[in-house]
Automatic annotation (TrEMBL):
<dbReference type="GO" id="GO:0016787">
    <property type="term" value="F:hydrolase activity"/>
</dbReference>
<dbReference type="InterPro" id="IPR032710">
    <property type="entry name" value="NTF2-like_dom_sf"/>
</dbReference>
<protein>
    <submittedName>
        <fullName>Limonene-1,2-epoxide hydrolase</fullName>
    </submittedName>
</protein>
<keyword id="KW-0378">Hydrolase</keyword>
<feature type="domain" description="Limonene-1,2-epoxide hydrolase">
    <location>
        <begin position="1"/>
        <end position="111"/>
    </location>
</feature>
<dbReference type="Pfam" id="PF07858">
    <property type="entry name" value="LEH"/>
</dbReference>
<dbReference type="InterPro" id="IPR013100">
    <property type="entry name" value="LEH"/>
</dbReference>
Length: 125
């Protein structure tokens, strides 16, 4: 999403991948997921994403990530915690499940809005 390199992303996904943002609808299939990402990118070109990975752990074919995801629109930036679970099959992601806290997203949004008027609250890269 951050780089909008959907062909590269598609190449990392199993054809029958399951993508689940816990609490929201599940997407199935690499083609559908990439189609959705492309649609969002085309319809919302002002919307950008960033991610900072804090930790990665793996066991067997499972990879866990702890990270900060950021939603960016111009000078607005909402940072929030996320944890991802990835199941890998034949070198490709077959399951992508993200967990996050809605309260943390809300706090990140408020901080981002306040950061528009109080520069000391803006995240420094």
């Amino acid at each position: 999403m951050r780089d909008r390199d959907f062909d590269a992303a598609s190449g990392l996904m199993a054809d029958d991948i399951v993508f689940r943002n816990v609490g929201y609808s599940t997407m199935r299939g690499a083609q559908q997921i990439v189609k959705t990402f492309r649609f969002m990118s085309e319809r919302l070109p002002f919307l950008n994403w960033d991610v900072v990975t804090h930790r990665i752990a793996s066991e067997g074919t499972t990879v866990l990530t702890e990270r900060t995801d950021s939603l960016i629109i111009g000078r607005f930036r909402a940072d929030f915690w996320a944890c991802g679970t990835f199941e890998v099959r034949d070198g490709k992601v077959a399951l992508w499940r993200d967990h996050f806290d809605l309260l943390d997203i809300f706090k990140g949004t408020i901080r981002g809005l306040l950061g528009l008027v109080i520069s000391s609250l803006q995240r420094r890269s």
